[in-house]
Amino acid sequence: MDFLTIIDYIGTFAFAISGIRLASAKRFDWFGAYVVGFVTAVGGGTIRDLMLDIPPFWMLQADYLIVTASALGFVIVFGKYVIRLNNTFFIFDAIGLGLFTVVGIEKSITHGYPMWVGLIMGTMTGAAGGVIRDTLINEVPLIFRKEIYALACVLGGLCYYLCMYLGVTETLTQIIAAVAVIIARILAVKYGISLPNLKGENQNT
Q1: What is the pLDDT confidence band of residue 199, given thresholds at 50, 70 and 90?
Q2: Distance between CA atoms of 105 and 119, rounded to whole angstroms?
Q3: Do residues 148 and 195 touch, judged by C-beta distance below 8 A?
Q4: Residue 140's beta-bridge partner residues?
Q5: What is the Cα–Cα distance from 50 to 42, expressed in whole angstroms?
Q6: Residue 112 CB burial class (10 angstroms; 0-12, 13-18, ≥19)
Q7: By the 8 A CB rule, do 157 and 177 touch?
């Protein structure tokens, strides 16, 4: 098992937990929570693969179904600790965001796409699953709020390509890019760093 596959599995587990945790807060049953966790984990990668004109990755092996089931089991066993911790969702979401950004970039490079496509696919892989998750649980997706979310993926992607340009080893490049996304996300939330809202005319109804 190569390092990228390990990253992919860890990211799947982290994103699945973030989705399952939110589904638990909404009082979903086990099956509903599993669906939300699975969609969170594979949604971005599925859209990415369809755009790259390749079979969605989870349709080629059952590992992702098993990893999601493991995440559900983790939440069930440690539920009273996981669900009650307000920062649990944020931590797992940030980890999944960083790891999946790297996976998306790597897959784009493998299929011969240029840098700008890699940045978009990395961001898509990291952020799109969260959009689907939030939509399913009837929340405004994080990517559409003031918080730095998708831009953290872009920053990580730029770090990835900078490391490639500087000749950094592949494994270290992956680690640096993922950590850059995670740190950017954490710092943005901790210090309230955000983009300004688009201002429009107020309409009285």
Answers
A1: confident
A2: 6
A3: yes
A4: none
A5: 12
A6: exposed
A7: yes
Three-state DSSP class for residue 194: strand
Using CA atoms, how far apart are residues 87 and 18, in angstroms rounded to an integer?
A: 10
Check pLDDT > 90 for residue 147: no
Tokens 């990580």 belong to residue: 156
d(CA 19, CA 45): 15
Q: Using one digit for the tens of pLDDT, what is the confidence trace for 184-195? A: 999 998 888 887
- Helix (H) / strand (E) element for 145: namely none
Per-residue pLDDT tens digits for 24-51: 888 999 999 999 999 999 999 999 999 9
| Digit-coded pLDDT (tens) for 9-20 | 999 999 999 899
0.85 exceeded by pTM: yes
Lookup: tokens for 48: 């990415």
Q: pLDDT at position 79, please? A: 73
177: nearest Cα among 2, 3, 1, 18: 3
**Rounded CA gap, 175 and 3, in Å?**
10
Residue whose entry in the numeric block shows the structure tokens 């965001």: 97
Write the CB contacts of 183 (distance below 8 Å, at least 6 apart in sequence): none
* Residue in 200, 154, 203 with CA at minimum distance from that of residue 180: 154
